[in-house]
Amino acid sequence: MSAVLSAYDDVITRYAPVIGLETHVELGTVSKMFCGCSTSFGGEPNTQVCPVCLGLPGALPVANAGAIEATIRIGLALNCSIASWCRFARKNYFYPDMPKNFQISQYDEPLCTDGWVDVRLAGVVHRIEIERVHLEEDTGKSLHVGGATGRIHGATHSLVDFNRAGIPLVEIVTKPVAGTGAQAPEVARAYVTELRDILRTLGVSDVRMEQGSLRCDVNTSLSTVDSEVWGTRTETKNVNSLRSVERAVRSEMIRQAAVLDAGERVIQETRHFHENSGESTAGRSKEEATDYRYFPEPDLVPLAPAAEWIEQLRGTLPELPSTRRQRLQASWNLSDPEMDALANAGALDLIEATVAAGAPAEDARKWWLGDLSRRANEAGLELGELPVTPAQVAQLAGLVTAGRVNDKLARQALSGVLAGEGSPEEVVAARGLEVVSDTGALGTAVDEAIAAAPDIAAKVRGGKTAAAGALVGAVMTATRGQADARVVRELILARLTQN
Amino acid sequence: MASISREEVAHLARLARLAVTDAELDVFAGQLDIIIGSVARVGEVAADDIPPTSHALPVTNVLRPDELRPSLARDEVLAAAPAAEDGRFRVPRILDDPE
Q1: What is the CATH T-level fold of the domain A439-497, as seen in this structure?
Q2: Single pTM value for the model
Q3: Is the predicted ipTM greater than 0.85, yes or no?
C-alpha cells in the first residue's frame, strides 16, 4: 500500500471531513470518585490507594458528591439537559490498569445530554453539538519495562501505579461535526480550546493537557464532496496538546484521502498520535468490536438529582468565556475578527490584566498582538509564558504615552524586561533609554547636523521645510534614536527659518 | 430446547479469560440453560405496569462529601501482590505479539 499523500489543499477540493471529539477531563476534586483517597498529582506510586480503588474483595464504592456537582455544572455550562434519574454501569474488560477488571462508568444513562457550545473562528460561529457528558473513574498508570523507550511493544513486563485509578473522570462527547470543510482541523482545536476555557472558568479541573488532566480523542472521516453518506471513521488517541488536536485532524484527513485515492477503503480502527512526528500509527482494529458487557452497577444506587439542586447549581455558574468575550469586545470596541484573533492568540486574559493595570485597551492589544506575539513565536512559547507581566506591559505603555520613550526605545526596554533586567522603568533607567527632549542637550547635535549638510540646510532656508526630514534623521542617528523627533524638528526649523 | 449455544459459552469464557474444555462447554451450556430458564420465569409474572429494576432498594443519591480519608500504607498495599517492583505492581507482558 504505497498511496501517494496529497497536499491538504488538494484533499479538501475533493473530500469533505466529518469530525467528532471525545474529551476526558480529570475533575479537581480533593478525593477520588468512589473513595476518600487523594487525587493530587505526582505522589509516590501506590501511596494514594485503598481497598475501594484497588478493588479488594468486600470494598464498596460511595459516589463523591463534589464530582456529581462538578459534572452537573459542566453539563449546564454546555447547555445540556440534566438527567432526573440515571445509573452508573460496569464496563467489563481485562487490562492491568483497572484492578477490579471493570471500570465504573455510565452507559445508556449519562448524567447530561444534548448540549451545545459555540466556537468562533475568524468571525464565523460554528455550533458544536454535545451528545453526552458522563462521569466515570480514571484508570491506573502503566510503566512498560524491557522494550524500547517505555513502549508497550516488546516490553517484558509492566509496572502499575494505581494512584490515578478512581480519580473522577468526565467524558464529553460531541455529535459528529460536518460542514466545516477546510477549517475542520482549526474548528477541532477551537472547540477543545473553548471547552478548556469553560472548564477552567468553572474551576472543576486544572485542565492541563501535558499532565493528562485534559485528554482528547479525535474521530475523523472523509467522504467525497458530493456524497450524502459519511465515510468510515478512525479514532486518533494520544492527542495531548491543543496544537496536536489540529495536527491530528489534518494528518488523518491527508492519510485517509491517500487511502481513498488508491481505491482502498478506510478501516475503522484506533490510531495513536505521535507528538514528535505529527503522524499516527494503527492501533487495535474495531472490526473485532470489544464486548464490554455493560450492566447497571449493583454497588451504587441510582442518581436522581432534584430539580432544586440543579437550579441551585445553575446559580453557581460564573460568567462563561463567551459572555465575557462579548463584554470585553464591547468595552474594547473591537470587530469580530479582531476579537477572534485576540482570543485565538490566547491574549484575552493578558490584555484584560494589562488594561486593569492602567493601560488603554488599544495599547495593550498593540503590545500583546504585535511585538510580544512575534517574540513568543520566535521563542516557541505561548504568550503567557513570556517572562513579562501585564503590569510591566502597562508600565511600558505608560512610558510611551508620557513621551518618556518612543516606540523604538520602548522595544529596547521590552528586550531588557524579557532578559530579566527588571521592570520597564528600571530598564529605561539602567540602559539610559529615556528620550532626550532637553533643547539644550540636543542643540549641539542639531548644529552639527546642519553643518554637515549645508546643501540640505540651504533648501530648508529656501522654504523647502520638507527637506528638514533628512536633518532630523541625522540627529536621530547621532543620538542613537534617543532624541524626541518632534523637538528636533522644531529646533532645526527654528535655526534655519527665523532670519 | 437450548437457548444458549456452545459457541456463546465459548465466547463468554473467552471474555472472562476462563480456559474451558470442549467437554465442559457442553456441561456449562446445559447448566446455563437451566439457570436462564429459571430466571426467565420472572418474565411470566412481570406486567407492563412494572418497570424493570436493577436495584432492590428504593433508595437514590447515596453520596459522600468530597473529603479525604487515609489511604493504605504502601507496604501493606504491595504485600498482597504476587510481584512488585519500584513501589509498583509488577504484571506480566500485556501484549502477546512482541514486535
Answers
A1: Arc Repressor Mutant, subunit A (1.10.10)
A2: 0.81
A3: yes
